[in-house]
Design brief:
There is one protein chain. This protein is an alpha/beta fold. The protein folds into 2 domains: about 230 residues, no CATH class; about 70 residues, no CATH class. It has 13 helices and 5 strands. It has a 5-stranded mixed sheet with strand order 1-2-3-4-5, with helices on one face. Strand 4, helix 5 and strand 5 form a beta-alpha-beta unit. Helix 1 runs antiparallel to helix 6 and helix 8 packs across helix 10. It is extended and about 90 Å long. The two termini are about 45 Å apart.
Length: about 350
């Protein structure tokens, strides 16, 4: 979820969501990570992906979130909404100091949304459903980060026991990919591949055998395979090393699909580059025309335009700025007055 400076469209989030948006993939992952007693209590056939996002807008540049709900197998009589269980999956690509505080915000938003939805029903909620937050850390080294929220709050020793009851206290489940061997990652083929790729990206092993496990690759859907290849090619891997890796693939279907997709991505990149270049050329042409209009207006009003003024106009960029100068060229009382606008 967290990598400072990356956009909402950053590839880590897309790959994570591609690997776990399906309840089948998410359910296999959750059964691997949750306590056995909890796994036995949940009706996994009823697991579903909840719509919407509960992430704060200021964190949308760095995080992805997946929210699932599932009923308990044996809901308690009169338990009301307590018979539903929410799972919040979060993906971190760097270590945020106040991760538990961010997660607390999400928990509150989920509960508030639950209340607003259930209040419209015939049976208003009497209690809130439990939420288990799970964090997948795409880290290259271990974290010295406590998963407990209470550890973020400084309690003076002189009154620690008095203040503790007033301090929220919960913990999130933390999976540090750097600490888990590739062959220990469990779940469906899609979930395993997504986590292996995210782990390999941080350790510089995107072309390693763990990612290019042909048995695993043959069992994932083409959509995820395409997402993985986009992730690899966008990650700055050596193109020649990538070609050699493809030549090592023994399964023709996988090798041919990878080569075809790689060629398609390269073509898309070239086309986007050409399109961007055309747009930039049009924009520069428009600006050049506006600069010419400014000089022409000055010539009509004041005759000869000094070379220094021409040079200053020639380096002006931006449509709004050029419009302002064109207006100034028309309204200025003298060349000196116009020059003050440059």
């Amino acid at each position: 979820m967290e990598e400072s400076g990356e956009s909402i469209h950053q590839p880590h989030d897309k790959l994570f969501k591609a690997g776990f948006s399906d309840p089948v993939d998410a359910g296999a992952f959750l059964r691997w990570r949750l306590p056995p007693a909890l796994v036995e209590a949940v009706d996994w056939e009823g697991l579903r992906l909840e719509p919407g996002s509960f992430v704060d807008s200021q964190f949308r540049l760095s995080e992805s979130d997946l929210l699932f709900s599932a009923p308990f197998l044996d809901p308690e009589p009169g338990g009301g909404d307590a018979c539903y269980f929410y799972f919040l999956l979060e993906h971190f690509s760097a270590r945020p100091r106040f991760a538990a505080l961010q997660i607390l915000r999400y928990l509150v938003r989920i509960w508030e949304n639950h209340l607003s939805t259930e209040k419209a029903s015939d049976r208003p909620p009497e209690r809130l459903p439990p939420i288990i937050p799970l964090v997948v850390a795409q880290n290259s080294a271990g974290w010295d980060l406590s998963p407990r929220f209470a550890d973020l709050v400084h309690l003076p020793r002189s009154c620690e026991e008095v203040l503790r009851p007033f301090t929220p206290d919960f913990a999130f489940s933390l999976l540090e990919l750097a600490e888990v061997p590739y062959d220990a990652i469990a779940g469906t083929p899609s979930g395993i591949l997504a986590l292996r790729v995210l782990k390999a990206e941080r350790s510089g092993e995107l072309l390693g055998d763990a990612v290019w496990d042909e048995v695993l690759l043959s069992r994932v859907a083409r959509g995820l395979f395409e997402r993985v290849l986009r992730y690899l090619m966008g990650g700055g891997i050596d193109k020649e090393a990538f070609r050699r890796r493809l030549e090592m693939v023994s399964e023709p279907r996988i090798r041919n699909a990878a080569m075809t997709l790689a060629e398609q991505f390269v073509k898309e990149g070239i086309e986007k580059g050409i399109e961007k270049g055309i747009e930039r050329g049009i924009e520069r042409g428009i600006e050049a025309g506006k600069r010419s209009d400014i000089v022409e207006a000055l010539e009509v009003r004041f005759g000869c335009v000094p070379e220094k003024v021409r040079e200053a106009i020639s380096v002006v960029r931006g449509e709004a700025r050029l419009r302002h100068l064109h207006r100034a060229a028309i309204l200025a009382a003298s060349l000196d007055e116009f020059a003050k606008e440059l």
